[in-house]
Amino acid sequence: MTGRWPADRTTRWCRRFLRWAAVLAPADVRAQRRMEWEAELWQLRATGARAAAHVAFLSGVLWDALWARKEEWSVDSVTHDVRYAWRTLRRSPGFMAAAVVTLALSIGASTALFSMVETAVFGDPPYPDPDRLVVVDMLFGASDAEMAPSQWSWPRYVALREDVTAFEDVAGYGSRTMTLTESGAPSIVSAEVATPSLFRVLGVSAQRGRVFGPGEDDAGSAVQVALVSDAFWRTRMGSDPGAVGDVITLDRLRFEVVGVVEPGYAGLSGSVDVWIPFPALRALESPGALEDAWNQYFRVIGRLSPDATRERARSEVAAFGASVMERFPPPAAARQLESSGDVVPLGEARVNAAARTSMVATFAAVVLVLLIATANLAGLMLARGLGRRREAAVRAALGASRARLVRQRLGESIVLAFIGGAGGVAVARIGVGVLGAWLADSLGTGGSRGLQFVDPGAFAVDWRVFLFALAVTAGVGLAFGLLPALHVARTDASEWLRGGRATTGVRRRVLGIGGRDALLAGQVVLAVVLLSAASLMMRTVVNLQRVDLGFDPDHLLTAVYSLSPADEQAGVRPAVFHDAVLERLSALPGITAASIGEVPMGGPVKRTIVMESEGRPDITLEDHFWIRTVRVAPGHLEMMGASLIEGRDIAPGDDENAGKVVVLGRAAAGELFPDGSPLGRHVKLPWPGYDGIGATVVGVVEDLALDRPGQPPDRLVVLPMRQAPAPETGLLIRVTVDPGGLIPAVRSAMAEIAPNVALTSVMSMRDRLATTNARPRVLTLLLGFFGSVALLLVAIGLYGSIAQLVAERTRELGLRSALGAGRLSIAALVVRQGVGATVAGVVLGVGASAWATTMLEGLVYGTRTVDPMGLAAVSGILLCVAVGAAWLPARRGMRVDPVVALKVE
Amino acid sequence: MARTLGITTVMILTAIERRHRYGLDIVHRTALFPGTVYTTLRRLENRGLVKGQWEDADVAEAERRPRRRYYALTRDGAKALESARHRFDELGVELPSGLSVAGGDEP
User: Fold this and answer.
1) Partner residues linked to A256 by β-bridges
2) CA separation for the pair A721, A729 (Å, rounded)
3) Global pTM?
């Protein structure tokens, strides 16, 4: 039949085309179609038709081949498959409920966390044209060392504004806590000092009144106007429509409210209540506040002009920065520094790396749980599929194409996935609303340079997040449906139609690994990664709690307060004032001792440079030997529970009439006096009274952890308050009872002594520590929770797998038992299979987690990211859980009665 | 396929009725695109309006060519064609003249 074909090239090419086209046709009609086409082609060649006819014929063949496929995908048949899938699912409501709930929770959690991560990692600052916004840094450094960003002073800012051309506009912003006095009661507000250009640069307007204008720039005299935030206007001014024009008292000065800022904007730090203009500092601080080129306390942000590039701006700013030392002669302490400038995009500048890593880690954890749940479902679907092989065989025999069978089976998983996905979006919405703010705050919302990193209010399920949910749902549905669906396609119809269960236990194995085993091992790998991350964070938390702080943090109430320049002008002397406060507080019941000093993790932080040290003749001012200065009341170190290494504490005798004395911290003592004890020797600081002979060292104390626990301690020098008074100080009170309970008493005592001095940051030391350690604790909580869920899922999966195994191999087990196998050996046989997969998973998982947990580098403390003990513990837990989960069904296998088993068909 | 037959389908059925029985022949007579003809033939076969049959093997062997597939109208097909023709007549639709050629068999 085929040997009579003409031998020319066209014919051969056409026949090849037909062969290819045949592949496109469904398998069941392939041969027929090909025969028919060949007959037609022969006719075409025999009658010598034109080229056009050939083209028409060949494209017709293609059309014909694809037609059957197209028919498969008609709306009718797809709808039919979906409805069939739904009917099938309804028959197992338990399975469906479990699957939908699992999916909804895992997809929901992933989506919620995606919205958080998306804001943190991809979010743009919420201002118009955010990529044109940059932070302008003033840099200082010793010649060889790295330059560090510093802050701006008013004269430098004015010079910058005039000189640099690459910016459309620049603006200054500085933060300040101020005391608001309302009807006699002082409270603290967060204020931002702003130039009028700030509102132009950020595109912020007022909802009532106006924002700052030309009147609030460079004006000659103090300008006492203020803007309030929308939140402040609502909560403190009762949304009063007549708020514009009202007068508020800040730091004892009266400010007229000229505008309420638009809702949703709370300053660059995200928590600003009021704005004041720079000229107001002339009244708040001193008339010369804006004249000193070295009084640096604010930052600068700029908007690039449309035609300027960042590079141009950077070089202009760097040139300006370099010229600063000449244009503005520096004080002695800064003389040897070099200066420069830099320009950093706003989006980059505000990033808080640790917060971002924690958010990403949490998201990754949730995704791992989702993957484990998906693998679990895939295993379940496989098991279900096995039970329905006969049905599939019948369908195949009746003419359903392979693709159709796969599609029908896949339909179930897609339907499940989408129901679960819909539930997931709902879960995500609720989750973001309820937990979003808490999660963001715990993991960190503040960035550097006083900028806000993420705005918790910005978490929402927007279109990008919804798209993510959709993609995840579809992916998950395919993932857990594909394997079982493809399994169906390999069904050998004849075997099943014969009613055979004789060949139970035959599983398709690739390289000796069954599909279900691989799924299980995969789940175990993921669970190991998750649990080892959790164990790392747990160790971090434990380590942080065990850190020696250098003082006793229990029963310690802390606060910070400050006298304002207005107070000092009114004649209040800091040392006297502080003494009065301490005297009053010590008299309160429940208080054992009260002192002033620096509140660890609370401030105020003060530093200075060592001028000279007897122990290190080589140190001069130019070396910038920074040292932290803490001004305390007598007996402070004892009250704090600090350990004196040498010498004595600050005593009542160390007052303004006595010689200057200091106590050094261990690190400072070691560096300033490396050759021996510093007791009785001298140290000079660049202050009046401390620069002549210097101060005598009377003691050495073990360093206190004044910053985050676990950080290497700052070099410390402790001075008597009476000898070096300062208006701002911390208050530390040792109490006998719960510190929180004494807060009201302390507040009212303070209010009696000084009605216009407000206490800020009043909390017990334990609470302060908890806040500082919040991030690792929250991460441990989250990772631990997800890890437990993962463990549970693995246990369930393993249980199901072993149970199914026992059911499948009932006959075989019965046989073995009949042939004399002991019950234990049968159980061992069963357990071994499941646990084998777990062991493989654990081994791979340990490797995978060693790689994955390097991501947590910046977050761990006191341990490396690869922690052998933790990994061993995690492996042990997983193996125990695996054996436990396998044991129950194995017991059933043990009890198989051989007679019954052999009778079962 | 809709319950009622469209023009191209009617043309193809008519061609089959007029004994133009295999794919290319129908294509030639109706001047329709081969793809249309083939897919319509499949549909008609699915619906039972035409029946396809392989040519006798000996005949093909003798003529030293591959076996063709011939199509013939079934009773249902004839009836459907009839009612479709009525409908077109009522509407005043004229079938393309190419089909009015009274043709005999063509190998």
Assistant:
1) A225, A247
2) 10
3) 0.75
Which residue among B35, B42, B55 sits closest to A59, beta carbon to beta carbon? B35
Cα dihedral A204, A208, A210, A211, rounded to 10, equals -40
- In chain B, % helix, strand, coil (3-state, to 5) comes to 55, 10, 35
The ipTM estimated for the assembled molecules is 0.87
pLDDT at A756: 74
Q: Name the pLDDT band for B99 (thresholds 50, 70, 90).
A: low
Question: What are the pLDDT digits (tens) for A330-358?
Answer: 876 667 678 888 899 988 888 888 888 88
3-class DSSP assignment, residue A820: coil
Minimal C-alpha gap between A51 and chain B (Å): 14
CB contact under 8 A, B35 and A60: yes
Record the tokens describing residue A409, joined without a space: 């089976």
Compute CA distances A243 → A195, A230, A274, whole Å: 22, 11, 13
Q: How far apart are CA B13 and CA B7, in angstroms?
A: 10
Residue A57 is nearest to which of B34, B42, B67, comparing CB atoms?
A: B34
Q: Say if the Cβ atoms of B65 and A39 lie within 8 Å.
A: yes
CA-to-CA separations, A42 to A49, A339, A647, B37, B60, in angstroms, rounded? 11, 89, 113, 18, 12
Question: What mean pLDDT do residues A309-317 have?
Answer: 91
DSSP H/E element including A256? strand A253-261
The residue ranking higher by pLDDT, A810 or A107, is: A107
Round to whole Å and give the CA distance between A885 and A887: 6
Nearest Cβ partner for B23 among A4, A40, A68: A40
Q: Do B69 and A39 touch (CB under 8 A)?
A: yes
Q: Nearest-CA distance from B79 to chain A in Å?
A: 26
